[in-house]
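Our preliminary data section would be incomplete without showing what the modeling component actually yields. Below, a chain of 205 amino acids is followed by its predicted structure, encoded as tokens that our downstream tools consume directly.
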Amino acid sequence: MQMLVESMGRGYETNCYILIKDGESLVIDPGIDAAEWVARNAPKPLAILNTHGHFDHTFSNAALKRDLGAPIYIHTEDHFMLNGESYLKSKEPCIADMRVSSDDWITLGGFCFRFMHFPGHSPGCCMIEFEDRIFSGDFIFENTIGRCDFPYSSPSDMRRSLTRFLELYGADASDDRPIYPGHGKETTIQRARGFLPEFIRMLSR
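Predicted structure:
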């Protein structure tokens, strides 16, 4: 599976990802000014996957859905941010075609993935997990975590989500898949295991 990444939006530098397999593609978090780059580089896009609803990750949703016909997937708890009911809304309101509400695996073409719900940064914040890699949006970054001081954020939810991450991904020491965040450089599951306990302690004070 081929992966392309481009940092989009001056001042935001949001990572937009394209996964390509067997002549088809998935687009993850098409943010500000991402539409043209995606249109050039994403063959036969099967879907647009949003890790969460903040505008710097969803800005180009509507244009890509209209121009490429790609359906939008987002967790049901963040859908309100796409349709104009939040100050963090996208430039052009849109409706998601699939409002995900569980951690079940989804198959589209040759891709298999699931939305893992980790609220805190936003109510519907998710990591999108594939068999060989994970896209963490604004949940986990290199050596840090996402902010939880925005409207609709929750420090207590973030603490529980970080604890759940360690419960789900901490048991298998051999699992060191790369984690690709919404901003900045990649990290790994093992690195996250090392620094997340300190953030859990900080959020517990």
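Helices lie at 35-41, 55-58, 61-68, 155-169, 189-203. The longest strand covers residues 14-21. Preliminary results of this kind motivate Aim 1 of the renewal.
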